Amino acid sequence: MRDLGAGFGYLMKGQRWVSQHGKQFGMGLLPGLITLVLYAAALICLAVWGDDFITWATPFADDWTSPWAGLFRGFLTAVLFALVLLLAVLAFTAVTLLIGQPFYESLSEKVDLAEGGHAPESGLPLWRELWVSARDSLRVLVRAALWGVLLFALGFVPFVGQSVVPVIGFFVTGFFLTEELAAVALQRRGVELRERLALLRSRRGLAWGFGTPLAVAFLVPVVAVFLMPGAVAGATLMARDLLAETPPEPAPESGEPATH
Q1: Residue 188: which of 248, 112, 114 has the closest Cα?
Q2: Please, what is the angle between helix 221-242 and helix 204-217, to 10°?
C-alpha cells in the first residue's frame, strides 16, 4: 500500500515540476497534439465498424431468437470497445513518445539535472534511440495485447466479466504505461526492456500507483495531451527511485567541515 501512494506521489510531483517549468511543459504538448489527431481517427473507425466486426466474429448467434443475439453482440461490442480503449492508452503513449523523443529526452534530462546535478546519456545517435524506442514499444504493446485477449475471453464470464475484468484491465494498462514512460529515463541509463520490466515487477505497487490513475485519465485524449509532460517528469523521478539514485548532499556552509 505504501508503494501505491508513492507511485501516485511521483505522478503528482511530475505534474508540479512541469507547472514550474513552463517552457518544457509547452514543448511537451506538441507531440501529444499530433498524436491526438491519429488517436481520434482510430476511435472513430472503431465506433463505426465495431458492430460489424462483432457480427462477423459471432456467426453462431445468427439463428438466436430475439433479443438474445442483439444483447449478446451488444455486450461483446462494449467489452471490445473497453479493451481497445485500454490498449489505445498504451498506443497513444508509445506514438507520442516516439514523435516527441527529442522533447521528452530533453525534459527528462532537465529533471535529472535538477534532482541530481547529472543527466546520464545513452551515447546513441538519435536514429538509434528512435529505433530502440519503437522496437521496445512494439514489444510492450504485444505483451499488452496478449493480456487484452485474455481479458476479452474473461469478459464472457457472468458478473466477473462486467465488474472484476475492467478493473484488472486498468491495472494491467497502468503497469505497461508506467514502463513506457519510465523508459525515457531508463534507456538513457542503458537499462534494457527485460531489466525495466523486472524492476517494475519488483515494485508493482509503485507502478500501479503511478500508471493506473494515468490509464483512467488517458481515456480522455485531451487530458492525455496535457498530462504527458508531467507524466514523463514524474516517471524520471520514479526511475531514480527504482535505481536507488539519490540527490547529492548539499554543500557545507562556510566554516563547516565537509562530511564523508
Answers
A1: 112
A2: 170
Q: For the segment 116-153, what is each residue's pLDDT rounded down to a tens digit?
A: 777 777 777 777 877 888 888 888 888 888 887 788 77
Distance CA 54, CA 43 (A): 16
Q: List, as own/partner pairs, every contact residues 154-157 make where C-beta atoms lie below 8 angstroms and the sequence separation is at least 24, other chains included.
A: 155/76, 155/79, 155/83
Mind giving me the DSSP string for 131-197? HHHHHHHHHHHHHHHHHHHHHHHHTTSTTHHHHHHHHHHHHHHHHHHHHHHHHHHHHHTT--HHHHH
Task: Tell me the CA distances in angstroms from 243 to 1, 35, 195, one per residue in order.
Answer: 20, 31, 11
**Cell digits of residue 36:** 491526438
pLDDT tops 50 at residue 246: yes
Q: Which residue has the cell 523508459?
A: 183
